[in-house]
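Lab notebook, bench 4. The sequencing result for the construct came back, and we need a structural model before the next group meeting so we can plan mutations. Quick request posted to the team channel:

Model the 3D structure of this chain.
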Amino acid sequence: MASTTSLYDVLGLSIGANGQEIKAAYRKLARMCHPDVVAFEQKEISANEFIKIHAAYSTLSDPHKRANYDKDLSNRSRRSFVYSASSGAAASAMASSGFSCRSWETDQCW
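Done. Here's the predicted structure in token form:
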């Protein structure tokens, strides 16, 4: 699921939600977005939304998948903070001095 919203946003939850809150949010959204419930004209849109909701629930309801997702989410937010912090004057100073920002993969090659 490559989108800008997190799985928590899809279900309308905070990151600290417990299992009961996740299940309740899923059931509520599933009743509203299931393709068998909506009008005929909205079935395709509803089906796509239902797939996103089910994928979010599938990941967040499994403790191991959720732990991996939370770790990945934390890494993504940390990475975006580093990139946004280095996009200003510090980045131009680094570029003019001959240094560049390297990722983990390029560090392993040295």
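The chain has a mean pLDDT of 79.
Will bring this to the meeting.
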